[in-house]
Task: inverse folding
């Protein structure tokens, strides 16, 4: 599985240098890049990745202004012209600290360490030591133990999956949908290839309109889950009676 990385740097030449070096590494996939803080925030919120190459000085702001978003990326590698920020970088749990101009030799050392760390995490895959009826859900920055019966839905997102529990919490994980199907096949219903759902956790169902696709409202979860025609037909098939879910008719 490739290592998905993001680049955030306001210097176009520095981004190009890093992009070219990363493109020579076969197991690295560049998932996106940004050149300023607002674009970086949007990128970090919307794009799952394993590692982030982050310039410390972004225009007039320091990258530490993005601190609240860094937890979404397991490994943060700071890049900078300035050695003086090293201590501050490691205080926010930086994985590594590269001085510009970044060289291929130094980058290779970082990537070697990154592979080793990810391999170690893979060998100690969450779930192996969880008690019966529980799962350890690894988000990259923490492992959360959930009862299988408390998983409300699992949604595929590229090489990742998003888990919603009965409390409405969300967890982005590297576990593939196929693994979830094997683990939860007797507990959740597969509505299509990208969505598993616990019927008991569905609060209501909104039919498609001109402006919106069909939507599931998961109990305690603030955002509806949009579903396609295949999932909608499957849901109506499974819930044959009109009183199983609010809003579902014949």
Result:
């Amino acid at each position: 599985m490739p290592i998905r990385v993001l680049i955030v740097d306001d210097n176009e030449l520095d981004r190009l240098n890093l992009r070219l070096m990363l493109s020579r590494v076969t197991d690295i996939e560049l998932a996106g890049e940004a050149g300023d803080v607002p674009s970086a925030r949007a990128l970090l919120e919307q794009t799952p990745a394993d590692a982030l190459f982050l310039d410390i000085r972004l225009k007039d702001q320091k990258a530490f202004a993005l601190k609240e978003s860094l937890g979404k990326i397991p490994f943060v590698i700071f890049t900078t012209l300035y050695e003086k920020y090293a201590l501050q970088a490691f205080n926010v749990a930086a994985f590594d600290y590269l001085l510009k101009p970044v060289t291929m030799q130094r980058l290779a050392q970082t990537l070697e360490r990154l592979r080793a760390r990810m391999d170690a995490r893979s060998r100690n895959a969450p779930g192996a030591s969880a008690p019966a009826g529980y799962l350890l859900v690894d988000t990259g920055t923490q492992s959360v133990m959930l009862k299988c019966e408390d998983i409300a839905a699992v949604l595929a997102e590229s090489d990742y999956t998003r888990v919603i529990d009965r409390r409405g919490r969300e967890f982005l994980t590297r576990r593939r949908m196929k693994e979830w199907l094997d683990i939860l096949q007797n507990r959740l219903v597969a509505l299509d290839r990208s969505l598993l759902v616990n019927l008991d956790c569905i609060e209501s169902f909104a039919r498609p309109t001109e402006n919106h696709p069909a939507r599931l409202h998961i109990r305690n979860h603030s955002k509806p889950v949009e579903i396609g025609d295949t999932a909608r037909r499957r849901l109506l098939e499974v819930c044959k009676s009109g009183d199983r879910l609010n809003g579902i008719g014949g």
About this structure: The longest helix spans residues 104-123.
